[in-house]
Design a protein that fits this description.
Chain lengths: 493, 103
Amino acid sequence: MEGHAAELGPTGPPPRTEVSPPSARGPVHPRFLHSAALRFAAIYALVFGISALALALFLWWETAGVLDRETDQTITADVQSLIERWNQGGVPALILTIDNRLAENVDDNAIYLLVDPALERIAGNLASWPDSIPLDRTWSELPIERAGIRSLARVRRYTFPDGLHLLVGRDVQVRAELRNLLTTALLWALLVVVILGLAGAIIVRGLFRRALANVSTTAAAISAGDLSQRVRITGRGDEFDRLSETINEMLERISRLMDGVRQVSNAIAHDLRTPITRARTRLEDAALHAKSEADLQAAIERAIADLDGIVAVFQALLRIAEIEAGARRSAFAAFDVAPLLADLVDLYSAVAEERGISFLLESPEQLPFFGDRELIQQAIANLVDNALKFSPPGGMVRLSAENTGRTIVISVADRGPGIPADDRSRAMERFFRGEAARNTPGAGLGLALVQAIAQLHAGGLSLTDNIPGLKAVLRLPVTVEAVHRPPAAAASA
Amino acid sequence: MRGAHRIRILGAAAAMPLITLMLAPHTVAQPAPMPLLTDTPQYCVELSDEVEEVRQSLVSPAPPEVEQLAEEGRRLCAMGEIRGGIVRLRRAMVLLHEISGQS
């Protein structure tokens, strides 16, 4: 048993688990990619970068883009106007219009060139057809020189049906310079964004690691055997705090369960050792000292009785475990508790009468309930059995029940020695035996079973002082099924 | 700490092309620029003659503003301020066309 307890205890190192080689687990990634903190930081930097890029593109579209589109629209309108002039007056009208437009070009930014099919100049302010502009391209950027100063023009080509080629454009040097300025500014801004993104990513990564370090440190301490460690709660009430609270609740529950397992293990070891040792001693004594077959037979029968008691204890433990696991919930049905109480009174009246104990029942005519009839009967029987067992001759046991609307309250009160207030909270633990119960038969599992049944039905068991004696109160919540499915209907179904 | 160092290295690697792009001189090979014929002294003379021709074609005398612009244009062209002179002559031409259009 001690070895078993040691296995369950928190002192041993955690078992090593076999780790398959990386190749067997999938593609191999660089080690730093396995860091969730780094991934979060990278995602932050990526989202930040994409947002900044989208903003830059929007700014570009709304500034340089607008200027470019305006220029293109102006040139296109100019070309359309010249085409109309050609349609109306032919080439002479076209030449005159170009000359007039150049003569009235106060903005000093217009570029025109009209050439014949052999690319010989007819009109305009360019000397010849630029080599850099192919005849199959509509839009082009054309470097120009104005009074010795290099500039840039945006031009559009159009070819008339008679083979004349027209080039219309605008000097966009100022806009190009503005665009360059904007481009440079945006690139610098992107550099700042990259730096800020990386700085933010490092901060996010640090915050993430710091938040997880708290949980990780606690988990490592618990893994090393210190179950008392809890995750520190910062008090900010954020997601990490809620996670910490959940983990702490989980740890509390695990701790309670482990305490329970340890306590049950110890109790089993302690309570079963005595009858097993006793049975062994009897058999040994009979084997060594029995003088007749009758002596041997008697020793064997006593040993069998001891072992039957042990089997009964194990059966009770298994039943409690089964009830606690909720496996019996499928047997729930609507039934009336009142006749069940009457049956119990009939059953135990003879025992009570034999011991000179008054056994009273106070119950309404009907107590509709939804649950496991057999278990409820066993729970109440356990309470009545305990009350009768500990009541002195001439005493009184009162079994009463009432329906408060939401709960059926069943209480069993006796005038026995009761349970000291300090022991009452532990009286429902498995194998607990109070001082008064030392000399009475039993394994200390009765109240544990009753409590398990009560909890299965979402109820509870409480023990109070009956002054004198003990009052056990079983509270069983009435569910909707009990109200809508009366026992008679359930029985006929 | 090693992770932070890696982030710094990755950041520097990411920023390098950007810095290079910003600091690199714009030395992309471009075709030779086309000179404009409307920035020449010759065009200044031609435009001045056109202005005079249009002015004389008017029924009524041209307003003094036109005379002033045309005169300034010619003077600037003579001084070598070709673009400034041409701009004034063009303004004079615009005014003359407006007057001739109204009449």
